[in-house]
Design a protein that fits this description.
The complex is a heterodimer of chains A (115) and B (115).
Chain A: E1 5-7, E2 10-13, E3 19-24, E4 31-37, E5 44-50, E6 53-56, E7 65-68, E8 75-79, E9 88-95, E10 105-106, E11 110-114
Parallel strand pairs in A: 2-11
Antiparallel strand pairs in A: 1-3, 3-8, 4-5, 4-9, 5-6, 7-8, 9-10, 9-11
Chain B: E1 3-6, E2 11-14, E3 19-21, E4 23-26, E5 32-38, E6 45-50, E7 56-59, E8 62-65, E9 75-77, E10 86-93, E11 104-105, E12 109-114
Parallel strand pairs in B: 2-12
Antiparallel strand pairs in B: 1-4, 3-9, 5-6, 5-10, 7-8, 8-9, 10-11, 10-12
Classes of the chains: A mainly beta (115), B mainly beta (115).
């Protein structure tokens, strides 16, 4: 079956611009996560959705970052007034159910470059 | 706080060599421990996991044992292949976060296998 998909695969933007990154989770997965991976580092947690609501947004670095999941499926990560330091790979993962023992499945990521 | 420290790479080995990638963690309670792998051009995949002390996770010839006394989860494989070339991430999910289950990753170890 289809895995987690993310679009676009690459995004180049200029400092100060607004960007949206999209995640399509595995069908039926109620849990959705966003992570950010800087070059040479491991992914870092940004935000977690269970259904439509953001259950934990403690990883968002500041108020320029926002994410939505209005129908409990597709999610969009939104970054306002982008800065060069926002350049990274943005990963989305989805998980079935609520058990922490269920595997999180990762998408291929969106590489964001802010010039 | 919770953190994961793993062996810095890159690690270069010849085919059929023995592999060890060291990983230690800091966490309260009893976290679940994981190894993820990222093959070139692909998304993160779960390689193996262990959810309690003395558990051994295994998959594709790789093994890791959850050692609470040394807070370690070292990855081993007896005979590596060229197809094992990838970046390996040690990770944990802290206990007590059963609804969020955000993954905390190490910085990754790049493994290259020479034919």
């Amino acid at each position: 079956g289809a895995g987690v998909s993310q679009t676009p695969s690459n995004k180049v933007t200029e400092k100060g611009k607004y960007v949206e990154l999209r995640c399509d989770p595995i069908s039926g997965h109620t849990a959705l996560y966003w992570y950010r991976q800087s070059l040479g580092q491991g992914p870092e947690f940004l935000i977690y959705f269970q259904g439509t609501g953001a259950a934990d947004d403690s990883g968002l670095p500041n108020d320029r970052f926002f994410a939505v999941r209005p129908e409990g499926s597709v999610s969009t990560l939104k970054i306002q007034r982008t800065e060069r330091g926002d350049s990274a790979m943005y990963l989305c993962a989805s998980r079935a159910g609520t058990s922490e023992y269920n595997e999180q499945f990762f998408g291929p990521g969106t590489r964001l470059t802010v010039l | 706080g919770n953190s994961v420290t793993q062996m810095e790479g890159p690690v270069t080995l010849s085919e059929e060599a023995f592999l060890t990638i060291n990983c230690t963690y800091t966490a309260t309670g009893y976290p679940s421990l994981f190894w993820y792998v990222q093959y070139p051009g692909e998304g993160l995949q779960l390689l193996l996991k262990a959810t309690k002390a003395d558990d051994k996770g295994s998959n594709k010839g790789f093994e890791a044992t959850y050692r609470k006394e040394t807070t370690s989860f070292h990855l081993e494989k007896g005979s590596v292949q060229v197809s094992d070339s990838a970046v390996y991430f040690c990770a944990l999910i802290p206990s007590g976060y059963s609804s969020a289950s955000k993954i905390i990753f190490g910085s990754g170890t790049r493994l290259s296998i020479r034919p």
